[in-house]
Write a structure and sequence with these properties.
Distance between the termini of chain B: 114 Å
Largest sheet of chain A: 3 strands, antiparallel
Radius of gyration of chain A: 29 Å
Helix content of chain A: 55-70%
Oligomer: heterodimer
Low-confidence stretches of chain B: 121-133, 167-180
Radius of gyration of chain B: 45 Å
Mean pLDDT of chain A: 79
Strand content of chain B: under 5%
Low-confidence stretches of chain A: 168-172, 204-225, 341-353
Mean pLDDT of chain B: 64
Number of strands of chain A: 12
Shape of chain A: globular
Strand content of chain A: 5-15%
Order of helices and strands of chain B: HHHHH
Structural class of chain B: mainly alpha
Helix content of chain B: 25-40%
Largest interface: A-B, 66 and 49 residues
Number of helices of chain B: 5
């Protein structure tokens, strides 16, 4: 783990779970897997506090535990999972675009709580939806459950590993920690529940209903008197599937920008058909025959079969190899190449990984640097003279740009000796781009920048803490006065408590914080692209 | 031979600088003598942030998530700092749970057993209040038995001792009678031994020399 990642992880933990969890998480990340007593010793916290923090972390899948052969339990932090906390808004937004409000709230509740049983999460979401609906209407559990089932069918949520069913014999002492496991086929199996009910509002609308519901709620809230029917079956969000979805989106938009809308629709259809059949690490989707594709095209696109075939042929012939032809049965079978590799090009506007370098260079160094970089990517190795010639940039400027990129380690020098004694006057010096190294360096920079952004945001909030508290108090007073019915003059007087300059200061603060938050979201997108690229390149044999 | 040529010209390198592109007489950038500034000047403005509906919605989501997570029981707040003196207002303040009990109920079957925090507070109170009562009851029975056995003996020598014992034991059991019997004789609130009723004061007393008379 690099320093930048460590710093970012601890900032994320502190912001979302508090200081104690941050200290515990930090210790685990820095020193690796360890048992409880060593952890207590390292962190210097009370044992109860450490236990509490570990429970929280395990609940949210950020830490995993393992029973060692000697009987102690070791805890290990999952750093890559902690970094995903940055991406939670993107997951929730994607769920909203795909499955609407119930889907959005389901994913949000699961992300906030880590793991939840189905009955619990459906009840919570129904309650929340009921709050936002108009008076008198309530959200039925059935609708929320059906969205839940759809999410499970498309693998966006999955079952957590469960406690083994077989009862322990009386002789063997129970293990210090349960060994959780789950079979592949069970992961998306939704238990047969008949969840009947409606969402409840927090404040009373009709007293009779409230009376009944309150009694029911008191029974169900604690969960102590009756165990829910799906006891022991917990669900969590399947982040890998979301990542796959983001990749598909990127592919589709790449095709759209390279060719046209219709071809992107074709690719989108192909991807949608093979959503659940593609294993997460595969490089190609399963082969699909063009007949199947034709049948699955969305209703709006009534293109003829022959036109579809032409599009598929075009896509297959494209040097970028989005689509490959794998056979001729059923009118030709095609696969989509989902794995990104360094060979796959440098097409500028597409969100493929290479081009994340290019906008970066554009911003930092200028468009000519970007031109040189693209040239080097294409031609792999070039001499100084050749760079000047191909890029059509005067020698002086080309030199200057190359040295700057060299000093930033985006470009490196490769020596090729002509003679065995490596004499400097008789060796070639070639400029080249080491893509993996450059990608990793950029990723490291991204982590650093997100950590800086977060710290800056916290600092801004800290400096204006007094003002923020004051404005919150004023709002609370206003709200209570409005509830009890006050005159406009009184309300105005309370509002006057915040002076003009203070109001301006608040406005500036809000604008800055919004800007910083939006930048964090954007950097996270770059992080996603770079991480997928590095991961996919490492996987290739 | 070695060392000659150092400093002459621009600084010789082991390889042929021309190959890399530094020609003769080219001005190189000056050497860096200090670390780069904290906020280097921006040569170009950064690209605008992604706006639009998606960007704003994600922004709102992010802030909402942050706010929501602070309110959940998973946000572990450090215990309230111990005050040096117990203040009256502490009774009326809504304090955060100082005992490290978990606010939410995790499924303990899925977690290692060592992580379970035993909620000791309530039980301790209960058991503590039970125990003295039992002890007191036991004491009473024991002392009653003792008294009976002592009465049976009825030895004058030990009678005073018995009375003292009785008094002591009674004093232990019954918290009301904490004071000596002397103090209860005259039915006043004041401890009589502290009060000097002035009989030895005034011209009657013979010890004039010790105290000045005003």
């Amino acid at each position: 783990m690099t320093q930048a990642e460590l710093r970012l992880c601890s900032l994320l933990l502190q912001e979302h779970f508090g200081e104690i969890v941050e200290i515990v998480g930090n210790s685990l990340l820095r020193t690796g897997p360890r048992p409880l007593r060593l952890l207590v010793g390292d962190t210097g916290l009370l044992p109860d506090q450490v236990k509490k923090a570990l429970c929280v972390l395990i609940q949210h899948n950020l830490v995993r535990y393992e029973v060692q052969p000697r009987g102690s339990v070791e805890y290990e932090a999952r750093s890559e999972r902690i970094l995903r906390i940055l991406r939670y808004p993107r997951y929730i937004y994607t769920a909203k675009t795909l499955y609407g409000d119930p889907g959005e709230l389901l994913v949000e509740e699961l992300l906030l709580h880590g793991q939840l049983p189905m009955s619990c999460v459906v009840a919570r979401v129904a309650d929340r939806l009921t709050e936002t609906m108009e008076d008198g209407k309530t959200m039925d559990y059935a609708e929320v459950s059906s969205t839940f089932v759809r999410l499970a069918d498309t693998h966006f949520i999955q079952r957590c590993p469960t406690v083994p069913e077989n009862p322990q014999s009386a002789k063997a002492p129970p293990p210090p920690a349960p060994a959780l496991a789950i079979a592949e086929k069970d992961m998306y199996a939704v238990p047969q529940l008949s969840l009947v009910g409606k969402g409840k509002r927090r404040h009373s609308c009709s007293e009779e209903e409230e009376g009944e519901h309150k009694a029911k709620r008191q029974k169900q809230e604690g969960g102590r008197s009756e165990t829910p029917p799906d006891d022991g079956i917990y669900w969590q969000v399947n982040l890998e599937r979301f990542h796959q979805h983001f990749r598909d989106q990127a592919l589709v938009s790449a095709v759209a920008s390279r060719m046209d809308q219709t071809s992107s629709e074709v690719v989108r259809t192909m991807l949608r058909m093979s959503e659940v059949t593609t294993a997460s690490g595969a490089s190609h989707t399963q082969p699909l025959s063009s007949n199947e594709i034709f049948r699955s095209l969305p209703a709006g696109y009534n293109i003829g079969k022959q036109v579809l075939d032409q599009y598929l042929a075009l896509l297959a012939d494209d040097p970028l190899e989005f689509v490959g032809k794998s056979g001729d049965s059923g009118g030709g079978t095609y696969t989509v190449k989902v794995m990104w590799g360094p060979g796959a090009s440098w097409a500028p506007p597409s969100p493929f990984p290479h081009p994340s370098f290019i906008p970066l260079l554009l911003c930092r160094f200028g468009s000519r640097c970007a031109r040189i970089f693209r040239l080097l990517l294409r031609k792999k190795h070039l001499e100084q003279k050749q760079v000047e010639d191909f890029a059509m940039i005067p020698a002086k400027e080309a030199k200057d740009m190359l040295y700057r990129m060299l000093s930033e380690n985006l470009v490196s020098l490769q020596e090729i000796p002509k003679t065995p004694d490596h004499a400097p006057s008789r060796t070639f010096y070639l400029y080249t781009v080491n893509v993996m190294a450059a990608a990793r360096m950029l990723l490291h920079r991204c982590y650093k920048s997100v950590a800086n952004l977060m710290e800056r945001r916290q600092r801004e909030m800290q400096e204006n803490k007094r003002l923020l508290e004051k404005s919150q108090r004023v709002e609370a007073i206003l709200a209570s006065m409005q509830a009890t019915g006050a005159e406009a003059a009184q309300l105005h007087e309370v509002e006057e408590m915040i002076t003009g300059p203070e109001r301006q200061q608040l406005e500036t603060l809000k604008r800055n914080v919004n800007k910083i938050d939006a930048s964090e979201n954007q950097v996270d997108e770059t992080i996603f692209v770079l991480e997928s690229f590095i991961e996919s390149t490492m996987k290739r044999p | 031979m070695a060392g000659r040529g150092r400093g002459r010209g621009r600084g010789q390198m082991t390889f042929n600088v021309e190959a890399v592109g530094i020609g003769k007489g080219d001005a190189l950038p000056p050497p860096t003598l200090q670390p780069s500034p904290l906020f280097p000047a921006l040569e170009r403005r950064a690209a605008p942030l992604p706006g639009g509906e998606e960007g704003e919605y994600m922004l709102a989501l992010k802030q909402e998530l942050r706010r929501a997570m602070r309110g959940l029981p998973y946000f572990v707040k450090p215990g309230a700092p111990r005050r040096d003196i117990e203040r009256y207002s502490d009774k009326y303040q809504l304090s955060s749970p100082v005992d490290s009990a978990i606010d939410w109920n995790p499924d303990w079957r899925r977690l290692p057993r060592e992580l379970k925090i035993r909620v000791r507070r309530l039980r301790k109170g209960r058991t503590a209040s039970l125990v003295p009562k039992q002890h007191v009851a036991l004491d009473k029975e024991e002392t009653i038995k003792k008294l009976e056995s002592l009465e049976k003996k009825e030895e004058e020598v030990t009678s005073e001792e018995e009375e003292e014992k009785e008094e002591e034991e009674e004093g232990k059991e019954e918290e009301e009678e904490e004071y000596d019997e002397e103090e209860h004789e005259e039915e006043t609130d004041y401890v009589l031994s502290y009060f000097d009723n002035g009989e030895s004061f005034g011209p009657d007393s013979d010890d004039n020399g010790d105290e000045a008379v005003y």
